[in-house]
Amino acid sequence: MCPDPGVPENGKRTGSDIRVGASLQFSCDDSYVLQGSKSITCQKVTDTLAAWSDHRPFCRGKSSKRTFTTGGNLQ
Fold first, then answer.
1. 33 forms bridges with which residues in the sheet?
2. Cβ-count burial of 64 within 10 angstroms (0-12 exposed, 13-18 middle, 19+ buried)?
3. Ranges for the Sushi domain (predicted)?
4. Using DSSP, how many helices (H) and how many strands (E) does the chain show?
5. Which of 15, 25, 47, 56 is deepest in the core (most CB within 10 A)?
6. Which of 23, 8, 4 is nearest to 61 (CA)?
7. Per-residue pLDDT tens for 28-75?
8. What is the pLDDT of residue 23?
9. Burial 26-41 (b: 16+ CB within 10 A, else e)
10. Burial level of 71, CB count in 10 A (0-12/13-18/19+)?
11. Measuring CA to CA, which residue among 34, 38, 40, 35 is closest to residue 17?
């Protein structure tokens, strides 16, 4: 089994099976955009370890803008 990735804030998850071979699908509420994979699959890594095929996606507001300062810091 993979760890439960939860549900992204301002989004939805379809599926609840977290066993090896299972996939989960993600979507976002209106006014939000999915950042990352729409679907992740639980994969066997070793005999005792399983992990998701990608990081859990998150939902970002369509109007949010990130800017970087000259020092590379996020504002």
1. 60
2. exposed
3. 1-61
4. 0, 6
5. 56
6. 8
7. 999 999 999 999 999 999 999 999 999 999 999 987 555 545 555 544
8. 98
9. bebeeebeeeebeebe
10. exposed
11. 40
Closest C-alpha among 52, 53, 27 to residue 38:
27
Per the model's pLDDT, the better-predicted residue between 4 and 67 turns out to be 4
Tokens at residue 27, please? 């979507």
Q: Which amino acid does the sequence have at 28?
A: C
Mean pLDDT confidence for 15-21: 97
Structure tokens at 19: 């066993």
Q: How many residues does the chain have?
A: 75
| Rounded mean pLDDT, 15-31 | 97
The partner residues of 43 in beta bridges, in order of sequence, read 51
